[in-house]
């Protein structure tokens, strides 16, 4: 049960930095942070603790001890908090290393989440022959799902979230990728931007629709080649992790089991999410987690 975790925190946070109407009652200090810091470092926790602290805490409690955080080239805030060395910084019982996702020449943003994970695996070649979990740095995944992935006996897995339990606005839920599975619960496809017809097709007998929130348990040696091979998205011009995973399961059927879960996942995508996440943290983490 390899205790390895990759946290993708190197994106441009463009939706968070986008100028938009200020949510009523939003803390002015957090509004300033939203325009300057990466999403995962916003101080939404009690006493201004950054969001990423809580994801790291949940990971530690779920049994992970070897973490790689993917960061941007000029993102010094994460290293200032969790350790300046590129490898094995000690932080409250876990070891934190970094992988830097550069922005290629001619682009203004990184190459996407598949490229981010590829950067992490290239600096952790010692993980070859092992499994790891990978997740976003702007979602607070629960200790339970992190533990389920770490302990799975399957070659690979992902969390199959109940679409109706996420408690987001309908317009936001409609943006989530939906999951296609065979009769035994193995992933067969991931549909980005699903149509109403896609939703009807993937809905199971109980009416449940499963969605991805970009958290997977993968084999280093199996996924590596697909991260390199996956093409750029035609519109976004990024290499996306769900597309690499979908390519992998097409070539390797029954390689990824979908673990059904029904729970809310705090999400810090845009400025409208800040107050919601801040209130969640106040209720769920009233004391210092470390």
Describe the protein in words.
The protein is an alpha/beta fold and 290 residues long. A hairpin with a 5-residue loop joins strand 7 (178-181) and strand 8. The chain has helices spanning 14-17, 28-36, 51-61, 76-82, 113-123, 143-151, 170-173, 196-202, 220-229, 241-251, 274-284, and strands at residues 4-8, 66-72, 89-91, 94-101, 131-136, 157-162, 178-181, 187-191, 210-211, 216-219, 257-261. The model has no long low-confidence stretch (mean pLDDT 92). The longest helix has 11 residues, at 51-61. The strands form two sheets. Strands 1, 2, 3, 4, 5, 6, 9, 10 and 11 form a nine-stranded mixed β-sheet that branches. Strands 7-8 form a two-stranded antiparallel sheet. The protein has a single domain, classed as Alpha-Beta Complex (Spore Coat Polysaccharide Biosynthesis Protein SpsA, Chain A), CATH 3.90.550.10. Helix 5 (113-123) packs across helix 9, helix 5 (113-123) packs across helix 10 (241-251) and helix 9 (220-229) packs across helix 10 (241-251).
């Amino acid at each position: 049960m390899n205790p390895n975790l990759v946290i993708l925190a190197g994106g441009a946070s463009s939706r968070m930095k986008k100028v938009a109407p200020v949510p009523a009652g939003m803390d002015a200090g957090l509004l300033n942070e939203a325009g300057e810091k990466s999403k995962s470092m916003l101080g939404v926790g009690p006493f201004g603790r950054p969001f990423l602290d809580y994801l790291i805490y949940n990971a530690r409690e779920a049994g992970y001890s070897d973490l790689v955080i993917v960061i941007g080239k000029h993102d010094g805030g994460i290293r200032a908090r969790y350790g300046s060395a590129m490898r094995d910084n000690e932080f409250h019982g876990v070891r934190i290393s970094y992988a830097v996702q550069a922005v290629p020449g001619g682009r203004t943003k990184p190459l996407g989440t598949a490229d981010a994970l590829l950067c992490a695996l290239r600096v952790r070649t010692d993980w070859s022959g092992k499994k790891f979990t990978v997740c976003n740095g702007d979602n607070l995944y629960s200790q339970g799902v992190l533990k389920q992935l770490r302990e799975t006996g399957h070659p690979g897995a992902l969390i199959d979230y109940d679409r109706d339990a996420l408690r987001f606005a309908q317009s936001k839920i409609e943006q989530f990728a939906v999951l296609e599975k065979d009769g035994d619960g193995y992933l067969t496809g991931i549909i980005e931007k699903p149509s109403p017809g896609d939703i009807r097709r993937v809905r199971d007998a109980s009416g449940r629709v499963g969605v991805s929130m970009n958290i997977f348990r993968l084999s280093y040696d199996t996924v590596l080649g697909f991260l390199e091979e996956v093409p750029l998205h035609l519109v976004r011009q990024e290499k996306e992790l769900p597309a690499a995973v979908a390519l992998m399961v097409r070539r390797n059927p029954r390689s990824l089991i979908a673990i059904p879960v029904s729970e809310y996942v705090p999400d810090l995508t845009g400025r409208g999410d800040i107050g919601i996440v801040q209130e969640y943290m106040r209720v769920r983490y009233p004391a210092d987690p470390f």
